[in-house]
Amino acid sequence: MSGRSELGRKPDRSVVDTAERDAVLDEALIAHVGLIAGAGGEGDGAHPVVIPMLCARLGDRLLLHGSPASRLLRTAKAGVEVCVTVTLLDGLVLARSAFHHSMNYRSVVVFGTATEVTDHDEKVAALNRLTDHIVPGRMEAIRPHTDTEVRGTTVLSLPLDEWSMKVRSGPPIDDDEDMDAPAWAGVLPLGVAVAEPLPDPLMPERQVPPHVADWSRGRQG
């Protein structure tokens, strides 16, 4: 930990339990990766960039992947520090005044320097983890990665050494003078809703496999 990972506002909402951090990272599908592009000497000058990316945790590392042509990945693997944020929205908090409306959420921010995974076996393991993180059990149902696909993908590993987590939960916090207001107040819970799977029209008719039919994520709304 360092000063930049300490919460300056509402430190009482800070969470330092790594198991709770891991639970958020394991539930999330999307991370927003921020860095200063051009800081490694590329491009027309340094400027901030934030890109949404698929992510997955593997032990005490966060995995990110994409095309070798990605400027963000090229910059990140050059040793530029990154900031990765993952946020799960659990509910809308409706207060008796607009000022006190809020959201219930769980958020993790990770700081550090990502390194490229270059060992073939480690890279395959990372790609398998990314795939099974998105849809658990998927790798058992599809063919393995080809060598061409492995070479054509950049995988970055970010150590979970420097991080912070912040959580807001519970009902609205209203001013005493507003407590008798006639407005409805409370929490509108939110979650990930899963619709009926849509088969590829080019695929022969097949039964939806359990790992697809039973897919769920986090707290269901």
Question: What are the salient characteristics of this protein?
Answer:
221 residues, alpha+beta, Pnp Oxidase, Chain A, 6 helices
> Spans with pLDDT under 50 lasting ≥5 residues?
none
**Structure class:** alpha+beta
User: Describe the biggest sheet?
Assistant: 9 strands, antiparallel
Terminal CA distance reads 34 Å
Shape: globular
> What is the chain-wise order of helices and strands?
HEEEHEEEHHHEEEH
Number of strands: 9
How confident overall, as mean pLDDT? 91
Task: Write a brief caption for the model.
20% of the residues lie in helices and 32% in strands. It has helices at residues 18-27, 71-77, 120-134, 138-141, 147-151, 210-213; strands spanning 30-37, 47-58, 61-66, 81-94, 102-113, 115-116, 154-159, 162-168, 186-189.
Textual characterization of the structure:
The chain has 221 residues and is an alpha+beta fold. It has one domain: Pnp Oxidase, Chain A. The protein has 6 helices and 9 strands, in the order αβββαβββαααβββα. The chain has helices spanning 18-27, 71-77, 120-134, 138-141, 147-151, 210-213; strands at residues 30-37, 47-58, 61-66, 81-94, 102-113, 115-116, 154-159, 162-168, 186-189. The two termini are 34 Å apart. InterPro entries: Pyridox_Oxase-rel, Split_barrel_FMN-bd. This is Pyridoxamine 5'-phosphate oxidase putative domain-containing protein.
